[in-house]
């Protein structure tokens, strides 16, 4: 068995020679960025693939989130989850907004709608839930609360590329959704991201914001940012899109492998398979329970010593990092604290080899045999 390191994820890379014609076109056109032809084609292709009305591409998911908040003029306090990547809360902080952390549902690891209302104050203007690991939030319950209190909903859909419920793409929910196309994501453009927009007018406003606020050569209507995706990133996205269904199938088979192998392992809990029209199998989280012979961190280091670089997504909780510590009220985040102390995400990516998977499963089961 090869002993090369196995990381939590590996980007899907189509054959290099297939990328060369895209680069030749960019060289010929001399159009490198600022809404060039590759950019326009990728926006069109993604709208069609995902089944969403409009997409505005970005240079990364964090700037997409920041801009989504700007586009809706969100201020004051925003209710969000502590069980996410720090970029979720950082996007609020960069806008001068206070994140208010609310606990998560133990069955989905997403913001628990039953706990949202108690956190609403006169300063609350929006809810920013995360479809954690690509698992959809309880979008109907969240929308009901938002409607009742006149709040906006901005989904951090960084993990949710290609996920569909019975009504279509889960990116259609809320006022806006922002997605990440980072190298570690199911669909990547090296760095990249997007905002899913409900209509052309909203997209135009977001396009202005991501281009410094310019609406024409001489008119600046808002303090916009540089959020534009370059032609090389967009071209890579176009190529990658040709392979996305194959990549998702391969991820599904890894997910099945782990489920079959670890399902009845004492001390290991796995989220139930979701009843979705389409999932993206972006992460494979397991929980290390108290009847497992090792602590979560002991297992994490055992895997690491054996060159398996699993990750504790998401530990620490955002609310436990120094920047946000003072905002988290004691005992309010019990479920999130518990999940964060038990979770390990096992490696999952299309090209992972079967013998690597069997090595990972054996290592997880090894402490039970002693
Ligand atoms: N909201 C949520 C909920 C998010 O999860 C994220 C990002 C965002 C917002 C913000 O979106 P972006 O602005 O990033 O588009 C990684 C990613 O950098 C980050 O995009 C992602 N979430 C987060 C969950 O994971 P790290 O610090 O764990 O990445 P890193 O560099 O340790 O990579 C993990 C493993 O992936 C490495 O051990 C090896 C492998 N890898 C990584 C890279 C970058 C590769 O094989 N090739 C690569 O090029 O944050």
Can you put this structure into words, describing what you see?
This protein is an alpha/beta fold. It folds into two domains: 16-241, 3-Layer(aba) Sandwich (Aspartate Aminotransferase, domain 2); 244-369, Aspartate Aminotransferase, domain 1. The chain is 35% helix and 16% strand. It has helices at residues 20-29, 37-50, 61-71, 87-93, 139-149, 200-210, 231-241, 244-262, 296-305, 334-342, 354-369, and strands at residues 6-7, 54-58, 77-80, 98-101, 124-128, 152-156, 164-165, 168-169, 176-180, 193-197, 214-216, 219-220, 268-270, 284-288, 308-309, 343-346. The strands form five sheets. A seven-stranded mixed sheet has the order 2-10-9-6-5-3-4, with helices on both faces. Strands 13-14-16 form a three-stranded antiparallel sheet. The chain has a two-stranded parallel ribbon with strand order 1-15. Helix 2 (37-50) runs parallel beside helix 7 (231-241), helix 3 crosses helix 4 and helix 3 packs across helix 6 (200-210). It is globular. The two termini are 23 Å apart. The site of ligand T4K has 23 residues, from helix 3 and helix 4. Ligand T4K binds at residues 7-11, 60-62, 84-85, 87-88, 130, 156, 158-159, 180, 182-184, 193, 309, 313.
Q: In a few lines, what is going on in this structure?
A:
By secondary structure, the protein is an alpha/beta fold. It folds into two domains: 16-241, Aspartate Aminotransferase, domain 2; 244-369, Alpha-Beta Complex (Aspartate Aminotransferase, domain 1), CATH 3.90.1150.
